[in-house]
Amino acid sequence: MLSFLALSATTAAVGMTAFHRKEVHHRRRMDALDINVHINGIRGKSTVTRMIGGVLREAGRTTISKTTGTFACVIDPKAGEHPIKRTGPANINEQYRFLAEWLDGADDPVEALVVECMAVKPKYQSICQDVILRSPISVITNVRLDHQEDMGDTLEEIAASLCNTVPDHGVVVTGERDPKLVEIIREKCEERGSRLVVAEESELSRSLCSKFDYRQFEENVAVALSVAEVLGIEPEVAARGMVRAEPDPGTTKIAHVRDVDHGAFYWVPMFAVNDWESTTHVFNSVADEDLPDDCRKVVALNNRSDRTDRAAMFVDLVAEELTESIDKVVLYGEIQEVVQQKLVAAGVDEDLIATTHDLDDEQGASGRELVQRAREGFDNEDVAIFGMVNIHTDHVIAMERYVDALAEESIEAPVAQGSEQYAEAAVASNGAHAADAAEYAEQADRRESGDRVKVGAA
Fold first, then answer.
1. Residue range 298-338, pLDDT digits in tens
2. Which InterPro entries does this UniProt record tie to the protein (predicted)?
3. Could you read off the pLDDT of 259-268 as tens digits, one per residue?
4. Which of 72, 388, 433, 442 could tie 84 with a disulfide, CB 3.0–4.6 Å?
């Protein structure tokens, strides 16, 4: 028995020594960075991660960026993208492996790191910041109602939860502008001895929005500009870098595509925008700024049986915010009958609602059939299809592939830009994203299923 206990103690001591050695190496790895930025928030994390990475590359910094949203990937110092292959739900231990591979294995010393927060649950957010990344600069893009099951039911609770990535004696940059929520963030910063920078709207942040070939939020631009200012990077350099950065596949890029047999339509994929405020903002801005005055507007609600809370929110959103502005609601994905009943009960005219479950057969509905269901009844009129709620169903994958195929053949420019240069970029982007649509959707699905953690340095 004594020998067994001695062996167990020896094994434990060896294990602790190995763990300590790895932790020391990890600390040295992180301390060697000149710039280390951790991106948290509800909306826009992937976009802001990409933009700040672009800013740093434009400033001549050897930079590694990592997103973990719709398209989880590592962006190398030359802006090359390397998709992250996952075999299960997102696990924050992935950050250790990523850091070991991309910092230790780099050809040239990495100067700057920009990483999107992987965690939703507050305790895992804290581990990501305090144990793994140790970033002196943290971003909170905004506070919106989402992930209530993990972060709290109110905006105030969600703001406090996001503050788990506030650094110790560092800097926090936020795009949130609600005074009550900013005050919560400020109090958390003061508790940890950190300085808060609120990214205010400016003439430059407003004007830059039109330079992107996808729907961009002014708040995201303001955040990237503020981080650049904290780092001493000139606004002109920052502006060039963020505009040159490739967009995340989850961004809303408007395409005007034409089917020779069925006419043209505007495709507005908002599937990754799933909070109330951002959805209404994008819908209204696209409708007001990017579409013909007489364009018909169709809302495509793509639902899943395991996302009933989100389905319920969008029923209320359509009934309360969009009914007066739209011509039709088409239901895709699952739980169509239930959502149809809820829409009618909420006051949406039953004649405005169409379903698509009748299009499914053994091979599944075709993308053309699904899109044409949205266009039915409008003949040769301009029609805009706004995709909402969820990115991952067979229906959306089929529609995306159909739209991408049309785009490769006959895409005009994204509506907001109207230039051949942006059209070519959109074609290339659409083609690349189509090939990986199912994989990206699976990654988003796994990420939403929750965080799992096993802490240990690589």
1. 999 999 999 899 999 999 999 999 999 999 999 999 999 99
2. Capsule_biosynth_CapB (IPR008337), Mur-like_cat_sf (IPR036565), Mur_ligase_cen (IPR013221), MurCDEF_pg_biosynth (IPR050061)
3. 777 678 999 9
4. 72
In angstroms, rounded to a whole number, what is the distance separating the alpha carbons of residues 90 and 294?
44
Architecture in CATH for domain 23-244 = 3-Layer(aba) Sandwich (3.40)
For residue 144, the one-letter residue type is R
Helix (H, G, I), strand (E, B) or coil at 353: strand
**Cβ-Cβ contacts under 8 Å for 15 (sequence gap 6 or more):** none
- Beta bridge partners, 299, equal 329, 386
Residues of CATH 3.90.190.20 domain(s) within the chain?
255-413
Tell me if 420 sits within 8 A of 213, measured CB to CB.
Answer: no
* Nearest Cα residue to 257 out of 353, 368, 356: 368
Calculate the dihedral angle through the C-alpha atoms of 276, 282, 285, 290, rounding to the nearest 10 degrees: -150
What's the pLDDT score for residue 35? 98
Q: At what angle do helices 218-230 and 45-58 cross, to 10 degrees?
A: 40
Amino acid type, 176: E
Question: 341-391, pLDDT tens digit by residue?
Answer: 999 999 999 999 999 999 987 778 899 999 999 999 998 899 999 999 998
Q: Is the pLDDT of residue 457 over 60?
A: no
Count of other CB atoms within 10 angstroms of residue 313? 18
Amino acid at 342: K
pTM here is 0.73
Long-range contacts of residues 342-346, Cβ cutoff 8 Å, at least 24 apart: 342/311, 342/312, 342/315, 343/315, 343/318, 343/319, 346/315, 346/316, 346/318, 346/319, 346/320
Which part of the chain has CATH 3.40.1190.10? 23-244
Q: Which CATH class is domain 255-413?
A: alpha beta
